[in-house]
Amino acid sequence: MPQLGQSCVLGFAALCCERRLVERLWDCFCLGTAMAHAGYRTATSYELRPAGPSDTAAIGALAREVFGPGPDRDPRAAEHRIAHVLQGAHPSSAVALDAAGAVIGATITIQRGPLTVLSLAIVHEDWQSRGVGRALLGRFPAREPGRNRVIMSSPDPKAMRRYAALGLHLRPTVSACGILRPRAVEPVPEAIAISPREGAQLVDAIAQAEQARGVPYGRDVEMWHAQGDTLHVIDDRAAVVRGGGVLRIAVARDPEAGRLALRAALASVPPGETVHLRHLREGQDWAIGEMLRAGLALSPEGPLFSDEPLGPLHLPTGTVF
User: Fold this and answer.
1) What is the band of 140 on the pLDDT scale with cuts at 50, 70, 90?
2) Residue of 94, 167, 194, 274 with fewest CB within 10 Å of its CB?
């Protein structure tokens, strides 16, 4: 059974902040790399082949088995996200099959402009410590000029060691989560809430800012739209995508606008929903301060790995960064 870390809200231990296993395509989350439980096991035959859209159901079933229940883990929505990233996935994406042809591991890598993002890395519990994860990660692209490889990791020591061995720089992070007190966050009058599709051009324009993501989201906006997520925007200065209590991404042109967009998103969270924002890092006091102001707790999170520095006005989602 996976071990759970401390709950960030006393009495709600099942609601947030898992530590030993992490999620990727469930958007509460960070990188799904369940490949590092201790203990050597004798290797059994398996094979790798390229991953494609036809693997969506099998990878989704594997993710449900490995990660279990948790916030933002609706099976249909998660499978939709898997299908989305498998469309046009990087050629290094692969599945591992056992002798019977069942999927026992997978990695999905996506290319978004100069960003090369490991969107999912997962291995069945029975196949961990047998070299499957190492073989899958061995397909991850090498560093190239003009490219920035990005991985959002679990706090598992073996996972972090493997990612560091790829030549990536480790960037520590924390997460913020909890249940908001009534009227803890006041609405922001200048904010508007629209569908992601309606605000696609706006969020892309903000995302391209040098201090933000540096790259537009393009067709990835459709993934959020299909899930019924909400886009909160402050003029043409900042945007946050929210699904229930999960803050999926935030991009901004300036810290003040970023704070206002986060505040607007928090104010719109349905009562009783657990709020979750992951991978807050150094240089993002504008966002950390807003989370603390709302009464949310901070908790250690798995690190973010990348070749190059990342924009301080960008809070990423685990699926597409």
Assistant:
1) very high
2) 167
Q: Where a domain ends, among 148, 169, 190? A: 169
**224 and 159, same domain (yes or no):** no
Domain that holds residue 297: 176-301
Two tokens at 52?
A: 């494609």
Average per-residue pLDDT for the chain: 87
Tokens 């969270």 identify what position?
Answer: 269
In the predicted model, is pLDDT for residue 125 greater than 70? Answer: yes
CATH for 152? 3.40.630.30
What are the distances in angstroms from CA 275 to CA 14, 76, 148, 306, 314?
A: 13, 21, 30, 26, 18
Banded model confidence at residue 138, pLDDT cuts 50, 70, 90: very high
CATH code of the domain in which 211 resides? 3.40.630.90
CA 150 to chain centroid, in Å, comes to 11
